[in-house]
Specification:
3-stranded antiparallel sheet; 3 strands
């Protein structure tokens, strides 16, 4: 029987959630959609071909308005 989330350690929960997030990101990329991420350098898109592109939100307001529109990529 699977362990209840209430009985999991923080590390077990983070591992479980991380795997689920990775699977969902992979589904978006397989469908040709980019995903939005962030790190200490800023906000970036990972495109379905695996390329990484940093964006400046103040120059690209439609990204902030909709995270699901690939046409939102600012160059």
């Amino acid at each position: 029987m699977a362990k209840s989330i209430w009985d999991m350690t923080r590390e077990e929960l983070e591992t479980m959630l991380g795997k689920g997030i990775e699977q969902e990101i992979a589904k978006h990329h397989a469908a040709g959609r980019s995903t939005i991420h962030g790190d200490d350098k800023g906000i970036y898109l990972i495109h379905s071909d695996g390329t990484k592109e940093y964006v400046e939100l103040y120059n690209c307001p439609h990204i902030a308005a909709s995270f699901h529109r690939d046409e939102a990529v600012c160059r």
